[in-house]
Fold this protein.
Amino acid sequence: MKGKNTQFDIEGIITRLKGSLSVQRDNELAEKIGTHPRSISQWRMKNTISMDLLVGACLQCELSIDYIVNGKRVPGQDSNIFSQIFKTLYGEKYENIFHALSVDKKVKLITTLYEQSGNEISEKLVDDLIRLVS
């Protein structure tokens, strides 16, 4: 599954990724996140970004998805869907299961949760998707 989304500020995401990873050029960013430099140019041209790649890069580089996606660092605020996803997956019920998954499976789970959840994460959806990717 190649999740794509156009509701985000793509240039802002690229800028925040570069800043968070201490790189300045697109080819340096591409190398850090494991993609081709042309992909980053295509994100700009099409105003879309691969959610799989974005979530995977944030997980692998230990970046705040909330910050990368929306540019805000607001401690304790839980308004972003990514915050809800991560609070759920890193919560007591799912933490051990989530940590045991490979990065690819984590990316698939998070991307699918994002695409199917709307504004609220249901435990049934999480349970179903964990069974699916495990």
